[in-house]
Amino acid sequence: MRARFAISVAAAVCATATALPVTAYGAATPAPGGGPPPPGPSPTGQATPGGQTPTGTEVSTADRAFLTQAAQGAQFEVASGRLAANRAASAAVQSFGRRMVTDHGEELQQLQALDHSLGVGLSSAPNTDQRNLAAIWTSVRGGAFDCSYAPAIYALHGTDVHVFEQEAAHADNAQVRQFAAAQLPVLRQHLQMASKNLGNLDCSAPAATPS
């Protein structure tokens, strides 16, 4: 099933974050400039019991799942971005965190408008992996925060780009396809920024004063 955060990727990210490396993130991390995680099977439109693919304002189960996970992900990016702006050692990671607050805050507003139009009843309550990451990131500062947050956010945005590409092409509802397509340029830019952050990690650095 289509999903914003693939279970295997989220589990790997949580394992990486829990380790809290004390040296710069190593070869086990996706290399800066590398592509997103390998794509899974291409999603297809989900037919209703009558055999018809939902159109207009109808929303399939797959589209509902995507929108729900998109809302969870956007809220998570906003919350974790605030943590990065206040707990990171790197000025670049702090700046990236503030960008997450702005851009994913706008994404949440667009999701709320889409929800109002389609009547999905979205919830942005965090999932288990997101709660686990938030617990880790609220317990560390400085370089330890950077070396947990930066690779995790890079991996998650790689997954995001792939999933949103699939939704832009294959979502059953036209409004969902348009939403996914509109988010892609921003997500791709985030992935590039996250990749750059991986190249300058100092895991022993003290927390900087937020600017």
Named at the architecture level, the CATH assignment is Up-down Bundle
* CATH topology description: Ferritin
Total helix count?
6
Strand-pairing-aware structural class: mainly alpha
Q: Could you give the order of the helices and strands?
A: HHHHHH
Mean pLDDT: 80
- Rg over CA atoms: 17 Å
Question: CATH first level: which class?
Answer: Mainly Alpha
- Tell me the CATH superfamily: Ferritin, core subunit, four-helix bundle
Provide the low-confidence segments as ranges: 1-12, 14-56
- Shape annotation: elongated
Q: Termini distance?
A: 41 Å
Strand content: under 5%
Helix content: 55-70%
Strand element count: 0
Overall number of structural domains: 1
> How would a crystallographer describe the biggest sheet?
none
Written description of the protein model:
The chain has about 210 residues and is mainly alpha-helical. It has one domain (about 5-20, about 60-200): Ferritin, core subunit, four-helix bundle (Ferritin). About 65% of the residues lie in helices and about 0% in strands. Helix 1 runs antiparallel to helix 5, helix 2 runs antiparallel to helix 5 and helix 5 (about 140-170) runs antiparallel to helix 6.
Short description:
With 211 residues, this protein is an all-alpha fold. Helix content is 63%, strand content 0%.
Compile the SSE list and pairings.
Elements: H1 7-19, H2 61-87, H3 91-118, H4 128-137, H5 142-170, H6 174-198
Helix pairs in contact: 1-4, 1-5, 2-3, 2-5, 3-6, 5-6
